[in-house]
Amino acid sequence: MATFGDIGLAAGVNILTALIFLIAFAILRLQPFNDRVYFPKWYLKGLRSSPTHSGAFVSKFVNLDWRAYIRFLNWVPDALKMPESELIDHAGLDSAVYLRIYLLGLKIFVPVALLAWAILVPVNWTNNTLAISQATDKLEYSDIDKLSISNIPHGSKRFWTHIVMAYAFTFWTCYTLRKEYEAVAAMRLHFLASERRRPDQFTVLVKNVPPDNDESVTESVEHFFLVNHPDHYLTHQKSFEFMLEAVRCDFEMFSLCLSYFYRVLSFEIPVWVSGSCHVLYLSGSFMVVINANKLAKLVKEKKSKENWLDYYQLKYSRNQSQRPMTKTGFLGLCGDKVDAIDYQTAEIERLSKEIAEERERVKTDPKCIMPAAFVSFKTRWGAAVCAQTQQSRNPTVWLTEWASEPRDVYWDNLAIPYVSLTIRRLIVSVAFFFLTFFFMIPITAVQSLANIEGIEKRAPFLRPITEAPFIKSFIQGVLPGIALKIFLIVLPTILMMMSKVEGFLAISTLERRSAMRYYTFNFVNVFLVSVIAGTAFEQLNTFIHQSPSDIPITIGVAIPMKATFFITYVMVDGWAGVAGEILRLKPLIFFHLKNFFLVKTEKDREAAMDPGSIGFNTGEPQIQLYFLLGLVYAVVTPVFLPFILVFFGLAYVVFRHQIINVYNQEYESAAAFWPDVHGRIIYALIFSQLVLMGLMSTKGAVQAPPLLIALMVLTFFFHRFCKGRYEPAFVKYPLQEAMMKDTLERAREPNLNLKGYLQYAYVHPVFKDDEDDEDEDFNGKSDDSVIVPTKRQSRRNTPAPSKISGASSPSLPDVVLENSSSLK
Amino acid sequence: MATFGDIGLAAGVNILTALIFLIAFAILRLQPFNDRVYFPKWYLKGLRSSPTHSGAFVSKFVNLDWRAYIRFLNWVPDALKMPESELIDHAGLDSAVYLRIYLLGLKIFVPVALLAWAILVPVNWTNNTLAISQATDKLEYSDIDKLSISNIPHGSKRFWTHIVMAYAFTFWTCYTLRKEYEAVAAMRLHFLASERRRPDQFTVLVKNVPPDNDESVTESVEHFFLVNHPDHYLTHQKSFEFMLEAVRCDFEMFSLCLSYFYRVLSFEIPVWVSGSCHVLYLSGSFMVVINANKLAKLVKEKKSKENWLDYYQLKYSRNQSQRPMTKTGFLGLCGDKVDAIDYQTAEIERLSKEIAEERERVKTDPKCIMPAAFVSFKTRWGAAVCAQTQQSRNPTVWLTEWASEPRDVYWDNLAIPYVSLTIRRLIVSVAFFFLTFFFMIPITAVQSLANIEGIEKRAPFLRPITEAPFIKSFIQGVLPGIALKIFLIVLPTILMMMSKVEGFLAISTLERRSAMRYYTFNFVNVFLVSVIAGTAFEQLNTFIHQSPSDIPITIGVAIPMKATFFITYVMVDGWAGVAGEILRLKPLIFFHLKNFFLVKTEKDREAAMDPGSIGFNTGEPQIQLYFLLGLVYAVVTPVFLPFILVFFGLAYVVFRHQIINVYNQEYESAAAFWPDVHGRIIYALIFSQLVLMGLMSTKGAVQAPPLLIALMVLTFFFHRFCKGRYEPAFVKYPLQEAMMKDTLERAREPNLNLKGYLQYAYVHPVFKDDEDDEDEDFNGKSDDSVIVPTKRQSRRNTPAPSKISGASSPSLPDVVLENSSSLK
Questions:
Q1: With A102 labelled, which of A138, A732, B145, B196 sits at a CA distance of 20 to 30 A?
Q2: ipTM beyond cut 0.95
Q3: Domain locations in chain A?
């Protein structure tokens, strides 16, 4: 049992680590050559460009302004300054609400900690049970235990305090949760309501279009919706002026024309082709991969050639005297020497043609046309109605659901038939069960292969090497651990793959599902395995053979004994880990490596930035583990709570900074994940009550079990209530809202060409040629970049100067919005 | 352990009982004076009237035609003859599908029984485990055990047969279930599609209309739907010609005018008044009861007076010489003597006025107007859309759902606010838990009060009586049993009350919910309590303290030992009970008692018939218990299956007869209960696999647990699949269907006055004056009575004469469709 001294030492070490990380960050971020690592978000928004065009050569890389270093902790107030509404504009609602999870942690645990320290700690402290048992049974105990429930004598009246506190904590948590759910639901609805026009507001994804012998998918979709939604279905437009206007005059005109004709002929219902087909899904997906791969490969190759062309043209523009030359062979190292610009141009043309042909092939190949479509409606009301109702008698065909944002669509899963979906769910559920409880088996197998004897047996010629003392100790000491470590690193990827196999249609859903699984995995393999020794499988075995009333006792009794372990865990994983997050060591190294070896053009540099995203599928389960720990220990070992508080506070600041300056979200789901967050906290709450019941029933508190069971029932019904009251805001789209927006829009823009607007909204990525342009058209980037600087401007003129973006890049006095000329 | 002889004896006794019931029925039903007891359905449909107008006096009461008695079992082929489509026309889809549950039992268990007897019985029989253990351990065993799994030696390879059979039975059951679900879903959709125009197709129930300070509920509903469903909301009609046409010229013109004005003024949105109000629900419901009671009392009083008036007018018409006189005082026995007809007419007028005043009072009292409305739409499409979508931001207001049939609405629950609903659910769940597991406690308490000593202590003056030997033995022997019996009789009522408290809005939902609870109660207190001795509470206690892996073992081991008990149970409850059902002893006695003492007019006689209904809330759980028993014993003791088969066969015939001739369904839910039926059979299937696993793991069949767990997982996912594939047909209304019907209707009746049609559809019962007329208008009775005889007619002319209705009433040669003249 650890004493206060031990804990203090551990805390010191971890605080020191965290501080080192923070100082390193504070210094590194001031260096101009790291600017793209620590402020990529601003680059992506076009509000900041490489700061290397003026001043001395060295100042391009190192910040020599000593004053900047004095204010090295300025990022903290900067991160906190941006108001939430501005944050939503800047980074999206998902990110803003994600931050609220940390804030929720503070809201729940600050009063809980205060109350626990004011009441529970004195109640626990003023006993001498542990002292007596030390005297009689020679039991060791630590100061921390003296503050915990362990110090209360058997059957004491003082347990009433703990029960009352359990009630108080539960009520407070529920109250906060409810407030928060309400707030987030309101934010979501406000966000959706105040949003600009977006294609997904008008669009419904129709899956499982039934095959028809007489009609193509396209025709069948059109007929169905013309018949069943006659007033709302956006009919096709015949004007050819419009067509001419829409055709873009780039070197892919031919392909575009074809694809445009295709769309016009197919009555404006974009039937998307992802190279995967209905028939093939049951017999394997070879053709799928080949198809998509070929097209994707061609597109990628073309991009690379375009990049080279840019490079050579730039080179030529600098030095007009000499046309750049290249060799046609492998990596430009062998073969005939030709004019580089001409060569690349010719290559690009060839590839464009090939891509166009491949596209046509895919489009005309009936096997490749998926029985799914994005159907657009004239009004939001029409789309809301279609998305929320059943279309056909047979509930497995003509399935409709809201189309996710174009960025959020997961194209590969659009064509899974209904029966296959059920089978996939079954397989994935079984696979996840085995993954959770039996993952140690293959790892143990690998470890047994990777030991010295195994290697020597299989590869006797390696014996001289493996017998070397250093290598031997390395293999014996590190290798077994590495197998486990590698597994844990790839675990999120495995879980994500599982979600993909399960057949969800949006990236946001995939991430939510993976988060759920990751949390379950962590709960079993981190929490339970730490509390009760033994692997998950051994525990499962124990639990099956234990009575249901013994399980909470087994866990409950072990809980107070593991307090110090989890305190250390929080400090290492929470404090130092979060401080490490802000340093972004991996992206920093990778950026500089890429910059040094690969970057040729400005586009490459953009690509090398890798801002990353929040990573909901791994980040949220981690926070949830802290909620679980906090709730479990709130009554049992209140001394635990301050450590959790430090985590939530630090993480809030760090992630707020990262969200403002670094992360670039791939999609915007408008906080669709909140019901999951809420549900898991409720789960943690009920679990904490259960183990408290188990613990107290062994301590002779006879009044505890019935009272705590009642509390569990109440908590459960609170959950039911919240689910009914707030969850619909996250899964449905009220008609009132839709009608309101429709009416407003009709009043404001009576002549809106909605058809033109929705024309290219849902295009499969491989069909997007000028991807960047379209992206900006549809996800609102171009608008944001107008809104945000305006606001900044106005803030700069206010009496209290808050240079949020400026202060975040303190040593860059004249950031000029200039683009390509800065290439070295 | 029972031998074949014991079982044979029990079977003999029960077959005899059943036969006596059937013969008694066969004789009683031929007597004309029982005709209304055994054929009320035909009377209600107006296809049959009292057969007492011709022939000798005695033949009015007793059937003297000896030939009729020869064909006394003719009702069986008669019951089976009517084809299903005709049955649906005749008795509704609910009844037809209810019969399919019995048929499903036959479909599942006939092949299972054949297979089990062909394979399992020989496999079990050709062992001598029991003989050996009898020789060594002196264990008793019966012949039945020799046919059961108990006769297989420990760890034998023969258990593979049982596992394979478990798989085969599961697959067969699932296959049949799927087929049946498909068929019932198709029947439901066909029924809904081919149905005539019905008000509920156009109507949506809107609950929780938010209170508004500036607008009444009526106005607020109108504004909301005008704004949010502008194209579909049925707007109000201003023509006063229409109004005049609609007003009926009965002696309640005044009241009707007022109520009509009220409706016109309130823009055609029928806002219903049930005397219960939003505000009061939280603080109790005193006013509710008072209000509804007063109005209902007045209506009832008026009805009684009208009945007397009929009686006197009839009397006068027979004997014109003398005006009938009556006394104004108590029961017409004292007070002034007045002209009876004039007096009753005056009384009726006075009451009509009072009723009208009371109605106006209720309507104008803002406290009595509930925040709920039935909103009608122009098209089915509009109603389907509104019912399936969320209307407002706040998911607890403007809740919409399909309006049930007017007959099916449970008016009292229309105004429960959302929070109150959650609390009600909580309270009812907790109450049901205690009812199930602790119901023995109050009964034991009552029993202890009702014993001799208790009575003598409390009422010493009764001692002389209670000391009498007969009374003493009566009290000691019967009274404790009576307490339990009374509880079991009132149990369905208690469960129904629970469902009502829970706040469901349709009688069909109430019944479904009660059925679910009744099944749970039976499962715990009949099945489990019989398998493992001890009360439910003791078992709960055992299970809590047992490991999850031991519970199936405990049950599984006890299962084969209880086979004979359940065989007896099936014979008593199933065979004799079903045969008793057809005799209708209670309605028979009550009808004759009422007929003798109370009946004055033809209306009274109608009321005395009491045809009853299927009683889904008690009947279906009983069938489910047989499914459970059949599935559990299919592998363990195959000898059990024939007994179940006899039950299903007998019950099918009996209930088909009853449905054709007796029961009068209160509502038509279009087989909405099927998902529950399906779900409970799946539950029984998984439970049977679980106990089989428990049993086999004790018999040393190590291969069984993993294989049976896999089977359980497969069964569960089969359920998931069916839920997704077929359940939507029972809870949603596809837009394609709605659009189809709308289009057809528009083509057929372009000038339909839908407004007039929907005018009086949803009227609270106390506001219906000429209830019978309106009922017929809206629930299609009047139409059915046209359709059915036509079909009969055509059948009579076909070469194979099938006189279904005629044969069911064999001794009534000239049933004349004449009404009131037959009054004695």
A1: A732
A2: no
A3: 4-197+561-726, 293-368
